[in-house]
Amino acid sequence: MIFTFPAGFLLLGLIPVVILLHSLKPKARPIFSTTVYLWQKAHREQSAGLRLKRLRRNIPLLMQLLVITLAAIALANPILPGETSSAANMILIVDTSASMQAETGEGSRIAIAREKADQLIRSFSGKGELMIIGAGIKPMIIARFSRDTDALRDAVSELKALDVAGQIKKSIYLALSFMRPDTNDRIVLLTDGAGMDLPEILSIDSRIDPVLIKGGSRNTGITNFTYRQLPDNPGRLEFLVEVSNFNDYPVLCPLLLTLDEFPLDRRTLGLTARQTKRYIVPYEGPQSGKAILKLDLDDDFVLDNSAYAVFNRPQKIYIHLFSKESAFLEKALRAYPGIELNRSADILAGSFSDQVRQHDLVIVNNMEVPVVEQGNLVLINSLSPTLPLTKTGNISSPVVVDWHKNHPLLRDINFAGLIIEQAALVKAGQGPVELISGDQSGLCYSYENERLRILYLGFDLEQTNLPLKVAFPMLVDNILLWTNPGVFRKELALLKTGDPVPLYLRATAKEIDLRTPSRILENLAVDHNPLLFSDTYESGIYRVREADYRFSFAVNLFNKSESDIIPIDLKETQTRSAPLPMSARSGFSPWLILFLLAAVLVIIEWFFWINP
Amino acid sequence: MNEVNLSPLLLDERLLTILEQVRILSKKQVRNLRSGEQPSRRSGGSMEFLEYRNYQPGDDPRYVDWNVYGRMNRLYIKLFQAEKERPVYILLDSSKSMEFGNPEKLFLARQIAAATSYISLANQDRVGLVTFDHGLREFRLPEKGRRVYLSLVNLLNEVKPDGETDINTVLLDFLTRVNRPSLVIAISDFLDPSGFKQGLKACSYGKHEVVLIQVLDREEVSPKTDGYVRMGDVETGKARSFFIDQRLRDAYTASFNRFITTLRSFCLERGFDYFMVNTDTPVEEVLISLFTKGSIRA
């Protein structure tokens, strides 16, 4: 027999109360008598058959105890194992978040979860099917609905806790999408409860049976580690370190910061219970290499005892400018320190495609452009057959009526007051996005496909006041970011596990080698640029190599909820040590019979009470 | 009868009238029922000749029959029949238990004592009054004459219930003081945990005529008490807690009836008269019962 609501047994707490009430004697009324000795004698005689008489006298008590017991059992909703009319499915959700790596003394939490899941699969005796979902940064179906317990157990044995924050709620919703209405389908959630609001999750649906994995509570971890260049001194850096003590007692934290294994800072930090401290380590020196921060402390959760940061060596951007002359543009480009700018006065049609492929950006000013298949291009008052734009004439003094404010090329730019003497009247085919709208024609378009990015400006820079406006250098900046974003962006230094990483590759890249922190080498085909890499499930340093182009990025957990591994304490009503076997789920529940029996007993007792 | 100053507490005019009627009625009934069985004491008198016997030294020379000596020249002592008049002793239980009841058992007991003494005195009997609890408290020797009645009534009025009952000790003590066969009228509840048999048995050895009048309250005979009580003994003060329900009441009634039966049987075996009266019984009914049965001569 299985009880689906064991909290109902709390009603048994009434038993001592009833016994106490029965054992209470009314306050004795003092009277006097001349025949006390006869009363005593009568009392003694009456006590001769005391056992039976006591039993008779205690019948009301016994009945009340029986009523309470029956009501408690009924409330606990007992289920007698039985055949099910409809096969009930069970979905096992196993928490694979970082906190499940915590050591419990009996193995890691994930190992215990695997063991419990294995037990559940072995005890699965219903006619339904069983599905397994891994709940990491995103829900992952580990095994589809199946009755093949061997395959299911194999799938469970492969489960590992990732270095990511858990997204249990998403997994719950995914599981619920597989639940059939009007069935006994159940969800069994194996989790440690860290990094989530478990009561809220359980309130999503009553068919969720939580199984808490407990054990392991000592942890102090690095919860942030980053760096920044000082604005007034770009040659100088500051490392920001944040360490949190998740214990209920103070700890001393020995910390060591190294850059390419060269120690930069060593200190011991004292933290009181549940305290977080931050400190800054200034650094001046070469801004390249791998910075590693280590917390040398023996606790139950080692993942957050290390943190990583990577400085990628600044890379040059090769730009080729095809222009008779363009003082504004050339001056603006040369202001960037990492730009190698070549300029040609004419385009050689036979070598243009190679030139485009070999440069990070090609800018053509007032020239006819041959067909190109790949590369980054800025066409200023120039058109290419590659670009689905057809020039139909010229327009004088077009007025800017609107611009695409959300496009990355026009980010933070205000074109109000832009004066253009003359612009090309163009007709756009499919593909180009109109960025600046004039009163008669589009004035600026962007176009991109898998290997090609083109910005088209439909007017001569010499015939506009754009170079004199603040918008111009911002436009140049946006163009460089749009066409070569990975070179300028710093986001790679601040990645968290599970975050997708845009890998900005050279335009010629066709495949890359990516080595994970656990030294697994993956070969990825480049079908987009940037290539979005989302399998950042390990914390550590990832290395990317494409021919001679190499860079690294670091990924860290930095999630206080996951690092706070102190087991949560759900009320008994919200959890149970083991979920119900499916056979029990589909069995017969005699709660109504028990309840009616209790009610009948109450009526009988009431009857005898009024008719003693 | 009117010459006696009667206490209104005990015998009022109405009751005295009733007593007179009872006396006349009971006289007839005694003659009819007991003639030949119990000759009247007054029929022979106290100086009736019985026999002669030889004079022995130490005999009272006043009883020498000088006429016989003149004829036979020998000293003979003239013996007379012993005086048959037996004194009446009224033993009144004045222990604390007699205070119990509604009305108090002692009230009825005093009325009975007053009535019996009145009748006895009226019959020229000598009446003594003894009050007792665990021992003899007052011991008034038997006296004759209606004038005694007033002092007896005053004594009865002064009786205050107190002390524990000890029937055996009291009766044994009483018998050491009273050697002559007497009519002993014991008025008590006889509710003594230590029993009564030893004392009553001693009474029978002394050739006393014993009348037991057991005065009880209705609550003692058939109690109505219910619920959880702390029951204190009126004499000892010792208390016991009981939950009194119908079952315990039944058990008590059975036990009480056994006690009564034992007392009644004991009296029957030894020729004692036994009367049980309730406090709510009118005293005239009690007296009629006493006199009609002949236990007390009217």
Secondary-structure map:
The complex is a heterodimer of chains A (612) and B (298).
Chain A: E1 2-3, H1 14-23, E2 29-33, H2 36-46, H3 50-57, H4 59-75, E3 78-79, E4 90-95, H5 109-122, E5 130-135, E6 139-146, H6 149-157, H7 168-177, E7 186-191, H8 198-202, E8 208-212, E9 220-230, E10 233-245, E11 251-259, E12 262-271, E13 276-284, E14 289-295, E15 306-311, E16 317-322, H9 327-334, E17 339-344, H10 349-358, E18 361-365, E19 375-380, E20 389-396, E21 400-403, E22 422-428, E23 433-438, E24 442-449, E25 452-457, H11 471-483, H12 485-488, E26 495-496, E27 501-503, E28 511-515, E29 521-525, E30 531-533, E31 540-546, E32 549-556, H13 560-563, H14 582-585, H15 591-610
Helix pairs in contact in A: 1-4, 4-15, 5-6
Chain B: H1 13-34, E1 49-54, H2 66-72, E2 76-80, E3 88-93, H3 105-122, E4 127-132, E5 136-143, H4 147-158, H5 167-177, E6 183-188, H6 197-205, E7 209-216, H7 218-221, E8 227-233, E9 239-244, H8 246-269, E10 273-278, H9 283-292
Parallel strand pairs in B: 3-4, 3-6, 6-7, 7-10
Antiparallel strand pairs in B: 1-2, 4-5, 8-9
Helix pairs in contact in B: 1-9, 3-4, 5-6
